[in-house]
Amino acid sequence: MDDAQAGGGDNHHLDDYERLKRLEEAKTNFLIVTAHELRTPLTLIKGYLELLKERDGSDDRIIRAIEDNTNDMISVVDDIVTIARMDLEEIELKIESVSTLELLDELIQRLEEMNEEWGDKVSFAMNDLRFEADRRSIEKVLMNLLTNALKYNSPDKKVEVKLEPDGPDHILITVKDNGEGIPDELKGIIFDEFFQSVDSPLTREHVGMGLGLSVTKRLVELHRGDIWVENNPEGGSIFYVRLPRRYCGDVRT
């Protein structure tokens, strides 16, 4: 094979790569547009549910069921958009000084907005700390872990959340539930995208796309942090998130 033929082969492979790259970007953009289109009617449903709550004679159980499922769908849509933007490297972190106590107030408010009963089903223990992070990303990390824990938790016990120093340079977040726990064979894949597609008693009982923990892991890693899960000796699971107190990475993925 002469040099011209070899060069032609390289160009052919380069063209294939560029074509695949454009197809991948088109697919990701399609997901973002579709997710936004889905979010609009879901937001309208939420608005009408608020109106129904104010009417006498409304069945609270039915409204709560519709509201819970609508919130689940909104969460899935948000996760799709987040993952798609990460794949396109469009996630830009806005690093600021975050107060743990202010973060706590925002978490409680968001939980009660999603489900009026959830605020009473979580116990918080937080030191008064400050750390550098993208506030919205850390809120999403905590909300994903909290909603996941509430989904699997024993109904007569509270989910426990702690945020405390871990040495001079890190903070440690723990989210503990009292559910059935995670089988050892699933611990290595629960942070994978579409984990829920794996057939197991855990995934059959709770439907979903399995994106929440994947998004959580990627957001933690953007902050140069670590996330892992262990079984709770008292039953259930404990998720750990370890973050640096001073952000030391780029502000773009």
Automatic annotation (TrEMBL):
<dbReference type="Pfam" id="PF02518">
    <property type="entry name" value="HATPase_c"/>
</dbReference>
<dbReference type="InterPro" id="IPR003594">
    <property type="entry name" value="HATPase_dom"/>
</dbReference>
<dbReference type="Pfam" id="PF00512">
    <property type="entry name" value="HisKA"/>
</dbReference>
<dbReference type="GO" id="GO:0000155">
    <property type="term" value="F:phosphorelay sensor kinase activity"/>
</dbReference>
<dbReference type="InterPro" id="IPR004358">
    <property type="entry name" value="Sig_transdc_His_kin-like_C"/>
</dbReference>
<keyword id="KW-0597">Phosphoprotein</keyword>
<dbReference type="InterPro" id="IPR036097">
    <property type="entry name" value="HisK_dim/P_sf"/>
</dbReference>
<keyword id="KW-0902">Two-component regulatory system</keyword>
<dbReference type="InterPro" id="IPR050736">
    <property type="entry name" value="Sensor_HK_Regulatory"/>
</dbReference>
<feature type="domain" description="Histidine kinase">
    <location>
        <begin position="33"/>
        <end position="247"/>
    </location>
</feature>
<protein>
    <recommendedName>
        <fullName>histidine kinase</fullName>
        <ecNumber>2.7.13.3</ecNumber>
    </recommendedName>
</protein>
<keyword id="KW-0808">Transferase</keyword>
<dbReference type="InterPro" id="IPR005467">
    <property type="entry name" value="His_kinase_dom"/>
</dbReference>
<dbReference type="InterPro" id="IPR003661">
    <property type="entry name" value="HisK_dim/P_dom"/>
</dbReference>
<keyword id="KW-0418">Kinase</keyword>
<dbReference type="InterPro" id="IPR036890">
    <property type="entry name" value="HATPase_C_sf"/>
</dbReference>
